[in-house]
Automatic annotation (TrEMBL):
This is Adenosylhomocysteine nucleosidase. One of its GO terms (molecular function) is adenosylhomocysteine nucleosidase activity. PANTHER family: 5'-METHYLTHIOADENOSINE/S-ADENOSYLHOMOCYSTEINE NUCLEOSIDASE, 5'-METHYLTHIOADENOSINE_S-ADENOSYLHOMOCYSTEINE NUCLEOSIDASE. Pfam families: PNP_UDP_1. One of its GO terms (cellular component) is cytosol. It comes from the Bacteria. GO terms for biological process: L-methionine salvage from S-adenosylmethionine; nucleoside metabolic process. Residues 9-227 form the Nucleoside phosphorylase domain.
């Protein structure tokens, strides 16, 4: 028998400040822990929701996302939170809908002899190797957000009142970068709008398990503007607020077909 069901949505945040707004909106929820990773199961406006605190960094994000998919079987994942700005046209509290996610901490350097120094401009980006179901290895440098989820995020962009919303490219690295030349190099060569520490790992795991994925990031600080603000908690709340609007849009318009 073919049944129509609304999607089960999971929203991730790495830090308390990136999930607290969601938990407050839930009001009542059940917390489950696996290892060091916490999952909160509840509802917001009658929409079933799983909130996942992944913890910081790519290893944590990969482990937490694997558990999330294995234990709860979400129909889609929204990975959201804060980011440092790369685009000088983006101010603190502006939000990026991540159309593409790239790994900006994975490079191969050509040989240079001792005392010849370093030459980052000659570093070559390394690809991730994804094993397909038929056994083939596919190389990927970019993971793309699901187009339908991306469209839903675009549809509610006008509801975000904390700044502007852009569709852009998010770079992921286990690196808190404050070197302006390095930031500008990434922005110039890879067109990154901002950088953070989890999205690429989440996208890779979601891709491996064929779970639709969307990344959203709110700028919490920027070295390439004159904002003079570093506010992860406020940016985290704003991003969660917008991500929840995206989730509601998806929930209202989507259904998932299940065969019994």
């Amino acid at each position: 028998m073919l049944m129509q069901m609304k999607p089960l949505i999971a929203i991730q945040g790495a830090m308390d400040g990136e999930v607290i707004g969601l938990l407050e909106a839930m009001e009542t929820y059940k917390e489950e822990k696996f290892g060091t990773y916490s999952f909160y199961i509840g509802e917001i406006d009658s929409m079933p929701l799983i909130v996942s605190r992944s913890e910081i960094g790519m290893a944590n994000a990969a482990a937490s996302t694997t558990i999330l998919i294995d234990k709860y079987h979400p129909d889609l994942i929204i990975n959201q939170g804060t980011a440092g700005g790369h685009d000088p046209n983006l101010r603190v509290f502006d939000t990026i809908i991540g159309e593409e996610i790239i790994h900006i901490n994975s490079f191969m350097s050509p040989h240079r002899d001792k005392e010849e120094g370093m030459s980052p401009e000659n570093w070559v980006p390394m690809h991730s190797f994804i094993r397909e179901e038929d056994g083939r290895l596919e190389e990927k440098f970019v993971f793309k957000s699901d187009p339908e989820l991306l469209s839903a995020a675009r549809d509610v962009a006008g509801e975000y009142s904390r700044g502007k919303v852009v569709v852009g490219k998010i770079g992921t690295a286990d690196f808190w970068n404050r070197e302006i030349d390095r930031i500008e190099w990434f922005h110039q060569h890879f067109q990154t709008s901002g950088e953070e520490m989890e999205a690429y790992a989440v996208a890779q795991i979601a891709d491996a398990f064929k779970v639709p994925f969307l990344s959203i990031r709110t700028i919490s600080n920027s070295e390439v503007t004159d904002d003079g603000i570093e506010d992860l908690d406020t940016a985290g709340r704003y991003c969660a607020e917008f991500s929840l609007q995206v989730a509601k849009k998806i929930y209202q318009q989507e259904s998932v077909s299940l065969s019994n």
